[in-house]
Amino acid sequence: MKKYLVAFALMGSLSTGAFACSKPATKPEFPDAQTAVSAQMVKANNDVKAYVKEVQDYLGCARLSKSAEKQELDELKAYAESFNEVIRAYKARTGS
Predict the structure, then answer these.
(1) What are the domain boundaries of the chain?
(2) pLDDT, the chain, mean
(3) pTM for the full model?
């Protein structure tokens, strides 16, 4: 019985490792700054932070070429800047 438990635990840890270094599937969408309420902006902020962390983790473990890594970072920076624009528009609308 112990052999099976050890084998099962080992398989579980190996399969987790295999999926740990994969690019995040989708980017979170941004709310419309002209109609969003505070709760939507907070959720979007948390989602974007989690996505950025996932991409950074992916870049840390993926063995990408320098040019591919630079492209991923440039895309991530552009995505983050787009969200910052939404935040600025939201703050301008709400006066916060």
Answers:
(1) 23-94
(2) 85
(3) 0.75
